[in-house]
């Protein structure tokens, strides 16, 4: 596969990130470096976007945003952690096009120069937000996610795509088409699950895909549709992160899920009560800082 160039002319310092497909084909894409922090530490911000998901990964000047929450609040959250004059993001991952993940990303595409997009394109999804997204994304280099892809962040850090599985057909439920990724830096792993439900959890386990991780972004805002006992016993996380809005209409997080975490002594953070939560990795250890 030959490299695709961004349609936009990027006039900032450029560097290459390599996306390595399972077949060892290397697809390189151009990304941009700006004033992002380069302190040798890998930062993951679980942004306080209300009822929705948004995670910003920052490492060695590279920024990856996964989902954008339900509205424009993501912009003020990004403003808190990104340098004032930084108006570019190297890679945006849309896990799936539900409103609580895509709406904020539409605002992000309006405000930031987004060099690359990774998504699981759903031809039959017809929501107005998805139509708008598909119009706005043409200024970025867009790639289809498939298991086995590796996004190399440099310095030993990388993001591996675990789901959707290569060659599999799309699921009926939008949630179950969510991209699942594993962020790895040295001794630590963070599993990022989108809104995938029990069916996908069973599939990953059945296919013996390595989902063991120290840190887990709990799927679907702590809904009881996900995070089965079997899944937690395969991931064996020490810490979990739940992104959700205060007093949300969905009853998230479900008490059963909190009990499952507690019974395994998995400490959890939740953005409705903890505000923005920052995870800091140095390759050997991790620490967590929350707003409240
Ligand atoms: Zn969601």
Automatic annotation (TrEMBL):
Coiled coil: none annotated. It comes from the Bacteria. Residues 51-246 form the Metallo-beta-lactamase domain. This is Metallo-beta-lactamase domain-containing protein. The lineage of its organism: Bacteria, Candidatus Yanofskyibacteriota.
């Amino acid at each position: 596969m030959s490299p695709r160039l961004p349609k936009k002319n990027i006039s900032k310092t450029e560097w290459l990130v390599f996306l390595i497909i399972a077949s060892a084909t290397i697809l390189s894409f151009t990304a941009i470096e700006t004033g992002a922090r380069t302190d040798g530490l890998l930062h993951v911000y679980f942004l306080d976007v209300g009822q929705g998901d948004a995670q910003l990964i920052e490492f060695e000047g590279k920024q990856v945003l996964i989902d954008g929450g339900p509205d424009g609040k993501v912009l003020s959250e990004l403003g808190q952690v990104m340098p004032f004059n930084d108006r570019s993001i190297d890679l945006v991952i849309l896990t799936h096009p539900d409103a609580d993940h895509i709406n904020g990303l539409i605002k992000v595409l309006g405000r930031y120069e987004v060099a690359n997009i990774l998504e699981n394109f759903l031809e039959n999804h017809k929501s107005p937000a998805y139509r708008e997204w598909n119009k706005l994304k043409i200024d970025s280099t867009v790639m289809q996610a498939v298991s086995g892809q590796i996004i190399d962040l440099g310095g030993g850090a990388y993001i591996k795509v675990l789901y959707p599985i290569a060659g599999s057909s799309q699921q009926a439920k939008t949630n179950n088409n969510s991209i699942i990724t594993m962020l790895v830096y040295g001794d630590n792993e963070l599993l990022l699950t989108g809104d995938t439900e029990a069916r996908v959890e069973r599939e990953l386990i059945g296919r013996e895909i390595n989902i063991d991780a120290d840190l887990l972004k709990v799927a679907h805002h702590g809904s009881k549709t996900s995070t089965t006992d079997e899944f937690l016993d395969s991931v064996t996380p020490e810490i979990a992160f739940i992104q959700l809005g205060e007093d949300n209409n969905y009853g998230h997080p479900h008490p059963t899920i909190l009990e499952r975490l507690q019974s395994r002594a998995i400490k959890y953070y939740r953005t409705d009560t903890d505000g923005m939560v920052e995870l800091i990795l140095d390759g050997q250890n991790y620490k967590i800082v929350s707003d409240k």
